[in-house]
Design brief:
F1FO ATP Synthase, rod-shaped, mainly alpha, 83 residues, single chain
């Protein structure tokens, strides 16, 4: 393995690690959404279905950011397009 390829592999590993950090944002956002959803259901139990469906839709949209980060990390680690 030549030096250039080693540098590319090292930079790809660092980039993959940084891409996985993108999972922190959706985790925090989903936790906040779940907390507010539980609070809303506690205040108005009759609106449970509407609150839950809206909360779950918002969490699904927020999760896509984390999945994109995971996809980028997998591409950099296993299908390295830079080599």
């Amino acid at each position: 393995m030549e030096m250039t390829e080693a540098i590319i592999r090292a930079a790809s590993a660092i980039g993959a690690g940084l891409a996985v950090i993108a999972g922190i944002g959706p985790g925090v956002g989903q936790g906040i959404a779940a907390g507010y959803g539980a609070s809303a259901v506690g205040r108005n139990p009759g609106a449970r279905g509407e609150v839950m469906s809206t909360m779950l839709l918002g969490q699904a949209v927020a999760e896509t950011t984390g999945l994109y980060g995971l996809a980028v990390a997998m591409i950099l680690l296993f299908a390295n397009p830079l080599i």
